[in-house]
Amino acid sequence: MMKLKHVRIILSVLILGFWVLVFLGENSQVTKLAHPLGQFQFYPALQFVLSLGKIGPGLITILLITLLWGRVYCSSLCPLGTLQDSVVALSRKVRRGRFKKQKPLKSLRYTLLALTIITVLLGSLSLIHLLEPYSLFGKLLVGVIGPFLAQLSILGEKIGIMRLNPGTFHSYSLEYFLLFLSILTLLAILTWRRGRVFCNSLCPVGVFLGICSKVAFYKIDMDKEKCIQCGKCEALCKSGCIQVNEKEIDNERCVRCFNCLDICPVDAIHIKLSPLKKMKKKAAKENVNGMQESRRQFLVSLGQIGILGAASFLPLSIFSQKQGQLKKEWRKLPITPPGSGSLEHFSKNCISCHLCVSRCPTKVLKPHWSFPWQRGLFQPQLDYTKGYCEYDCHVCSQVCPTQAIREITLEQKHKIQLGQVQLIRENCIVYAKGLFCGACAEHCPTTAVYMEPYQASLYGPVTNTHICVGCGHCELVCPALPWKAIYVKPHEVHQVALLPEKGTIKKETGKKDFPF
Amino acid sequence: MDRREFLEKLFSIGMATASTFLLGRPSKLFSAIKAEKNTKLSYDLVALVGSTPEKLFDAGIKELGGLGQFVKRGEIVVVKPNIGFNLTPDLGATTNPLLVKRVVEHCIAAGARKVYVFDHTASQWEKSYKNSGIEAAAKSGGAIVAPAHAERYYQRVTIPGGKVLKSTQVHELLLQADKVINIPILKNHGGAGMTCSLKNLMGVVWDRMFYHSHGLHQAIADFALFHKPTLNIVDAYTVMVKNGPRGYSRGDLVLKEMMLISADPVAIDTAAAKILGADPKTIRYLSYAHKMKLGNMRLEELRIKKIVVGK
């Protein structure tokens, strides 16, 4: 009979492995599973419900599991949790240290959760984007691990030992890489020294599921008569939720790793079915304890959270959108991915997990801080300074776990107009300098930009905005300096692009002579 | 010496060797590569009509004595098709993949040690390589399909005599190649009038925008000063006559079932312009290249073989 902790380890490693492949790999079979399996990640599932108004099976399953067995999600399903567990395992081997029991920090936990919910209701997703584990996992993987692997594979390519396509990995600007690297380092240090402290103080999902855990049917219980207070369980507990002095296990903070079940030399720790009456009594006891916590600590935590909350609304200018050769007044609004429908829908529902960013083949989707149009931190936008939106691609809509980018077919995608092409003749090197160009028309997938005779044998660009899809290829390749001669003006609500008629090929196979 | 000393020495030698690879693989001197004029050939230009591209090539190269006239045993060959766009081959924007495969096969049969296929595409490179069918076809023919989408694959060269293009970054494989077989597909071009052999070479440089901003036609001619391919094979099976070089639908194409083969890029492009229905004098880079003595626009001075191939 396999031990529970081994089941947990196998399941969590499989799920972590899957999500690493999804965020960093390029296998299309794996990508297809990202959407359905994303339903079993708590916040994406919740956001899916809020976004589309449909009850997903994932959310119900997670809540059911938690109400039955407690925070099984935190040790088995959450990829950030499993990542932390690997740091914990390494830390134990290297440090041979003990974990100590930790203060419940109820005021910090509950206040932060409340603040997160309040800011979401008020319209800012910043705290979610910073603290929600799935989204944080995605950002760290795509923002730090991805570029690191890209550099490794470029090195490997130079030495000739591998051809692990480095083009797959996204490369951010230096600012974003450093920011996410610092977050990853901070989290790693916290986990190394204190185990799952993130999960029990900062993570809104963890705190919420912890509250649900209070009324769970099955709990981890310590038999007070058997316990000899040897302290082995407390030293092992990565949540710091076992208090050997009081012979108590705080089920609200327990992440159900099940490591403690077989460490006890007198076999005092078991999973027990917990009837309601006992729970009410326990809850009353805990409440008294909570209120006895010093008011000073409460105020301190409130102060810290207040600063964090206020900061979530502040613009950070180093991350503000660089527009390259575009004058700022030409494009004030961000361009959101095809399938999002509108800036409103996208920024309300995007959880900034960066899965679309990692999957985008042309690297046009990039995280941006563009306060105040976006409601959170580093939601992706289309950035035409280094990329364009490939006409025959809809990968972002296929992977988005919250359907902030609604899934669309290629036929539907061809009829979406993200923005309209704008030509500035004064900047165009054909009209202004009499040079031969045509780079814009050369790349336009719909002939919305095409060439017409201008002077002598010169041809100049002309636009047909009705068929423009706003892909930005023209803007990307325009060589005009210092300002572009052609760019895409975004639509706040995406419009419909008309499809030009497709013709049939003409046959001239009867002729057998050459015109020379 | 003792074991420790031995290991230390081994390690430092190993690191030194490895670090030389980090600086770049050793390659040939980056001087201008000029193809020798092959007067042993019976014709300056072979024009064919009436069959599929692979069959036309088989018939045409035979007239010139086989690809062995151009590619010698043990040589490194670059085959340069047009893989420019993320479009399927039936849309006529990219070189026919079966033609690419056939050319690769001929190179290998002639004894080439390695055949590379690449293009600095206009659209996303992996999709273009895949959906044009050229990656799979070239691989099945025995070629090594190489990436060309990142600056690190290119090396800076100078072009002595270049009027607007005095220096540019060229793909390292072109610089390492002994022979280059250029396989453009004939299309009209909104900016340059026509895209064929000379314009297809824009796919071996990194900074294409430089051409557009400094004088497209002269830059195209200047690059031909730096590099003339060993052989040009113009795929004129379907010719894009409007909305080129990308095209929108098959309505932009005319089925002509033609092909041109020549070592002279100016001559072949002049003949191609006439097939396209354009006056070669309006395609400025041809006149510039002709004046720079990179080839001959006067087709009446050339030995042309015309072949009608039965199906």
Q: How far apart, in Å, are the first and last alpha carbons of chain A?
A: 85 Å
| SS summary, helix count of chain B | 11
- Compute the number of strand runs of chain A: 11
Low-confidence parts of chain B lasting 5 or more residues at pLDDT below 50? Answer: 24-36
In what range is the share of β-strand residues of chain A?
5-15%
- Give the largest interface pair and sizes: A-B, 52 and 59 residues
Strands of chain B, total number: 12
Q: Specify the overall morphology of chain A.
A: elongated
Given the C-alpha coordinates, what overall shape of chain B results? globular
Q: State the end-to-end distance of chain B.
A: 75 Å
The helix content of chain A is: 40-55%
What would your notes on this structure say?
The complex is a heterodimer of chains A (516) and B (311). Chain A is mainly alpha-helical and 516 residues long. Chain A is built from 22 helices and 11 strands. Chain A is elongated. The termini of chain A are far apart. The mean pLDDT of chain A is 85. Chain B has 311 residues and is α/β, with parallel strands linked by helices. Chain B has helices at 3-22, 53-63, 97-109, 125-131, 134-141, 172-176, 197-200, 209-214, 216-226, 265-276, 284-291; strands at 45-49, 76-81, 114-117, 144-145, 154-158, 167-171, 179-183, 185-189, 193-195, 231-240, 253-262, 304-308. In chain B, strands 1, 2, 3, 4, 7, 8, 9, 10, 11 and 12 form a 10-stranded mixed beta sheet that branches. In chain B, strand 2, helix 3 (97-109) and strand 3 (114-117) form a beta-alpha-beta unit. The longest helix of chain B has 20 residues, at 3-22. Chains A and B meet through helix 9, helix 21 and strand 11 of A and helix 1, helix 4, helix 8, strand 11 and helix 10 of B. Strand 11 of chain A pairs parallel with strand 11 (253-262) of chain B, so a sheet runs across the interface.
